[in-house]
Each structure stands twice: as structure tokens, then as C-alpha cells.
Amino acid sequence: MTERRHASRAEWERIRARGRARFLLWNGVMARGVPMAIATVLLIQAFQGELGMGMLVSRGFHARLLGALLLFSAGGALSAFARWKSLELRFQEESGAGDAS
């Protein structure tokens, strides 16, 4: 079960070969930031009683959505960057690359 929760070395090598920028974009911004921004703005709209098709043309909705997209995308990218660094460190330690002086 532990192996399924953590990236294997082979899986990490495939991810790493695609590059850090792609990892940050897809795992941070697209997988975390954008969905959280949309969910948050929809919840705010619902709590304000403004959830409906009319919100799509509302200036306030657009401003909230843009702000949330920027904020949550940045947070998602930072989270993905931390994950990238964690995986880099883990696999460097496992291979003994950190032992050479």
C-alpha cells in the first residue's frame, strides 16, 4: 500500500524527464489551483445568494474569479514546487547521490 501512495523511482524518472515547469503547471496550477479557485468563487456566490446564470455576466463575479485564479494558482504552484523538491531529495538520498563530497 505504501508503494501506491508514493512515487516509485521509475515513475519519478518519467515525471522528472518531462520537466519541472510541466509538473508545476499540471500538478499545481491545473490540478489544484484552478479547481480550488472555481469551487471557492462558487461557494462565495452561493453564500451571497447570487448563484445562477446571471453571475456569468456580473463584473463582481469576474473580478472574484480572476483574483481567486491568481491566488490559488500561485498556491498550487508553490505546493507542487515543494512536492518536486521533496521527491528530488528523496530519490537523491535513496541513490546515495548526497553522500559524495
Strand proportion: under 5%
Biggest pleated sheet: none
Estimate percent helicity.
over 70%
Q: What does the oligomeric state look like here?
A: single chain
Can you put this structure into words, describing what you see?
This protein is mostly helical. Helices cover 78% and strands 0% of the residues. It has 4 helices and no strands. It has helices spanning 2-5, 9-18, 20-47, 59-95. Helix 3 runs antiparallel to helix 4. The longest helix has 37 residues, at 59-95. The chain is rod-shaped, with a radius of gyration of 19 Å. The mean pLDDT is 88.
Keywords, please?
101 residues; mainly alpha; rod-shaped
Put the structure in a nutshell:
The chain is mainly alpha-helical. Helices cover 78% and strands 0% of the residues.
Explain the layout of strands and helices.
Blueprint lengths: L1 H4 L3 H10 L1 H28 L11 H37 L6
Helix pairs in contact: 3-4
